[in-house]
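Shipment paperwork, digital attachment
Item: protein structure file
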Amino acid sequence: MRERKLLHTSEEANIIGPGVANRKVSVLKFTVPEGATWLLRNGAQLVMKLFDSAGNEIPNNSFVYIYKRRKGEDGEVFLTKQSYAPFFDLTPGEQRNDKYAKQTRVDLGVMDGARFTEGDAIEIWVESPAAVDLTHANTRFELTVELA
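Attachment content:
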């Protein structure tokens, strides 16, 4: 299968808004385009460098959540809660390095993967002591999906 890297700057991406300190809020959404199907596999590559509005990296005690929202449905389905600690102080290149890859991969627990069809969305939520700002110049959010 072919892979696609979803970036916070991709055409499928929609930055919802800034984070809110000490609250879990939706900050980013990737919507599956017409005619496409994505598969988010357990162990998929995830690269994150997240900053607050002052330009500081968000604290290592922050968490990033991934949800699935089906087209036409009001609620979302929880997929995973990722600690930001393994990503903290690592460059995007280091996060892709085999030495760190295991700790910086998507952990879906017992699920093999999650399938997203046209109109479905992958939602990213952040819970942090700092308000995340995805418009900061050094921000990097990259999630690898398979094209099915």
